[in-house]
Backbone:
């Protein structure tokens, strides 16, 4: 159905390609060290209110200092770690939080992220939320990308994009009156998205690009696509008709061939924000 969450996913995937492939889960999430699961946790914590390219720089510095593992960070000096994280936002507080998280993983799981992540989703999420610097969004990022648990990540980009597109929701007869993407509680937004995508996952309403994908793979790829869309087109000041923003979002070679496209945002035909903006010009 045009304007549905399934249709938005199909349009984004046609434009950007598959970003998160279940056969190569770190294809979209760049990994620099030897412990990808723990590195994903670090990235999820560090990226809070920080650009991803800044986070990548911090992770590379941690790797070069041999601090890209729980046992090393648990023994690290807070001052030393903070100096390596700078200019990540709140680097001092994040340094202390990362040391506490690393200490917990070492004390409870012998330093094994895989053991931590192997827990049932409900128990894992509760434990992650009990750790410093980890809120609902960060916990879900860790669970989805590092743990392969089927939870949809709701971030500011998700709220911005769906708030502007105003997708048709099968459970809501009139979008504008029934659902507020910006103000709704985190869990409400997540449950709404997961409910809408259920038919795509079970095959009852397949799209050419999404059928036969696992639940966690679909969620991860969709979240990755939303991030690319909002970094390139659906910015705070959107670039609806212009070429995509050429921001250095990540240092992955060959992933950004779509930057050469100049046909504008792929979601313009179904974007409520764009239609209203054009009507105001007339």
Residues:
């Amino acid at each position: 159905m045009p304007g549905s969450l399934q249709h938005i996913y199909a349009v984004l995937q046609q434009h950007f390609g598959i970003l998160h492939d279940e056969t190569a889960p770190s294809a979209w999430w760049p990994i620099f060290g030897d412990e990808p699961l723990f590195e994903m946790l670090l990235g999820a914590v560090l990226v809070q209110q920080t650009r991803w390219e800044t986070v990548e720089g911090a992770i590379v510095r941690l790797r070069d200092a041999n601090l890209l593992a729980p046992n090393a960070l648990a023994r690290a000096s807070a001052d030393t770690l903070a100096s390596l994280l700078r200019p990540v936002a709140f680097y001092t507080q994040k340094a202390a939080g990362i040391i506490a998280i690393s200490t917990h993983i070492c004390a409870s799981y012998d330093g094994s992220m895989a053991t931590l992540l192997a827990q049932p989703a409900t128990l894992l999420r509760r434990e992650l939320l009990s750790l410093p610097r980890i809120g609902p969004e960060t916990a879900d990022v860790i669970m989805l990308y590092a743990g392969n648990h089927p939870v949809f990540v709701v971030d500011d980009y998700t709220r911005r994009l769906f708030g502007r597109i105003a997708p048709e929701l099968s459970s809501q007869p009139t979008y504008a009156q029934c659902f507020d993407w910006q103000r709704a509680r985190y869990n409400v937004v997540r449950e709404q998205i997961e409910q809408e995508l259920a038919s795509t996952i079970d095959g009852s309403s397949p799209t050419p690009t999404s059928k036969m994908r696992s639940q966690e793979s679909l969620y991860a790829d969709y979240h990755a696509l939303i991030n690319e869309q909002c970094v390139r087109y659906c910015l705070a000041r959107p670039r609806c008709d212009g070429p995509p923003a050429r921001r250095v979002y990540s240092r992955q070679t060959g992933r950004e061939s779509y930057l050469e496209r100049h046909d504008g945002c792929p979601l313009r035909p179904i974007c409520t924000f764009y239609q209203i903006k054009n009507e105001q010009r007339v």
